[in-house]
Amino acid sequence: MQSFAQAPGSRPRIGLPVRLSSSSDPDPRVSEANKLFDHIVELVRDGGGDPVLFSTAPSATALASLDGVIIPGGGDLDPRLYGEQPSEVCYDVSPAQDDLDVAVARQSIDAGLPLLGICRGHQLLNVLYGGTLIQDMAPGVVAHREPAPAPGCGPWAWHEVDVQPGTKVAGLYGDGAGVTVKIASGHHQAVARVADGLAVTAIAEDGTVEALEDPDRWVASVQWHPEAQEISAEERVAPFRAFVEVCRAAVKS
């Protein structure tokens, strides 16, 4: 693990690639993703971190100033990244966003920085390691998106996942013991073939891969949205606070 200088008592610096698509896009999912990005930035700050936003790939100097990275949600990855042609169901496919997110993730992993992927970030991590995605999920026993959400439930389908004990994601939700998490789910794509080098650490009842991690370094991801506003304030901030502490500990190691 590479160490980075951090003043005693300072806030760990957490890098985040910005969302490049405009909220004026007629597809409401784009503005929703941008709102969720803003929520993640707020939660990093509330959790004790200092968010550092990147609109281009970070320089070596900028990267060396970071203590961790979060790759957030957003539109669909270009299927060409995993060897497929895009179908008509893909939305907000942006080569510029793909290039930015891939660059930030790859540089962070190479530098030994803790990395957390959320939703699109989860899918990107699998593709970056050599895996593939389902371009559009067929309806099944678990709803992963909600076309007609009930009042007060947000734009989410809600279901539970069991996170394996002793894993990085379990540690974000407690002391590393196995934990059942009620998750906010809103995606039409999912992991297909899991990449070599990644371990599945949570699945839905229908077998959908809900969490991944690299067993050899602090790299982990979740398909769900821990930043959803319908979750209680303490439950929202808890995994981000835990990730900030992971980043703080990594500096000392």
What's the SSE blueprint?
Blueprint: E1 13-17, H1 28-46, E2 50-54, H2 60-64, E3 68-71, H3 95-111, E4 115-118, H4 120-128, E5 133-134, E6 157-163, H5 168-172, E7 179-185, E8 190-191, E9 199-203, E10 209-214, E11 219-222, H6 233-252
Parallel strand pairs: 1-2, 1-3, 3-4, 4-11
Antiparallel strand pairs: 5-8, 6-7, 6-9, 9-10, 10-11
Helix pairs in contact: 1-6, 3-4
Overall average pLDDT: 92
Order of helices and strands: EHEHEHEHEEHEEEEEH
- Large-scale geometry: globular
| Largest sheet properties | 9 strands, mixed
Rg estimate, integer Å: 17 Å
How many strands?
Answer: 11
N-C termini distance: 7 Å
Please count the helical segments. 6
Low-confidence stretches: 1-8
Query: Per DSSP, what share of the residues sits in E-state strands of 2 or more residues?
Result: 15-25%
Structural class designation:
alpha/beta
- Strand order in the largest sheet: 2-1-3-4-11-10-9-6-7
Share in helix: 25-40%
Task: Give a description of the structure.
Strand 1, helix 1 and strand 2 form a beta-alpha-beta unit. The protein has a 9-stranded mixed beta sheet, with helices on both faces. A two-stranded antiparallel ribbon has the order 5-8. Helices cover 30% and strands 20% of the residues. With 253 residues, the protein is α/β, with parallel strands linked by helices.
